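We treat protein structure as text, and this decision shapes the records that our systems exchange. Below, we set out a record of this kind in full and without editing:

***
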Amino acid sequence: MTLVKKYGPGLGLCLALAVPSWLLGKAFPVVGGPVFAILLGMAVALFYKKKDRTQAGIAFTSKKVLQYAVILLGFGLNLSQIAQVGAQSLPIIVSTISTSLIVSFLLWKVMKLPGNTATLIGVGSSICGGSAIAATAPVVEADDEEIAQSISVIFLFNIAAALIFPTLGGVLGLSDQGFGLFAGTAVNDTSSVTAAAAAWDGLHPGANTLDQATIVKLTRTLAIIPITLVLALWRTAKAKRAGGSGESTFSLKKVFPFFILFFVLASVITTVATSLGTPTSVFQPFKELSKFFIIMAMGAIGLNTNLVKLVRTGGKPILLGACCWVAIAGVSLGMQHVLGIW
């Protein structure tokens, strides 16, 4: 009962924000539930001043529930299917991810952005938008305003890509296969990938790029594993060095994101189970729960975000996001040309 009393009010508030955000995300998938949740949370925070009773639950949701969401996300990844279908896209995926991370690193140096914001935007742009930010944020110990700002930047360019890319692909003369690769490697978030691919299929009846774009996108999602583990090892080494002679103050358990290992385990379970004949529909509830938990966590992050400060400091992160977006799109098209796909 003590835990319910401590966390219940905050969890209840985040749940109340998540339900309408989930429904709005279903109605407007290009925007997505997480963005609605952040916006709704920030709107409520402008008027809701009595946070003492709810703060513990809000903090639990923005940290722990977010980690549970990432673990459940692993049940949406069939590693063998991705290996078979996504192999062709691998050179393009590696190139676009590397480009985004390099651009974000260089602009972090030039523009003197907060390190966590640059990391989250770089990872979110290169891998899978909000899911990658959700996985990376606990690893780098990003605060709620850094997460909200990064999600907002990713959302802006998701919308732009979903609206612009189908027409751009037609102007450039991309084949159906080429556009599937382009959407899967150059659009940030899964919902926007499907929106762009569905729009292309609407303009080109019988194209069927949606399945290909989605599998390429899932292949990109696997990059969450090495990138978060590298960041975790870097942070672990940094924390150990900071401990200096006081080795007793260093704790691997406190700094290493073990939830990422559970994410990998969930992916392996899905792969083994489906190879033994288990229908993929069995794992659908876990995937849906993962999405809902992310929406809950984004609502909590919105509640802890200063909207005025977010707007005032948004110029540089948006510029960083724009540079990553343009660079990824250019490299995706360039690599297709080099590989003879386009």
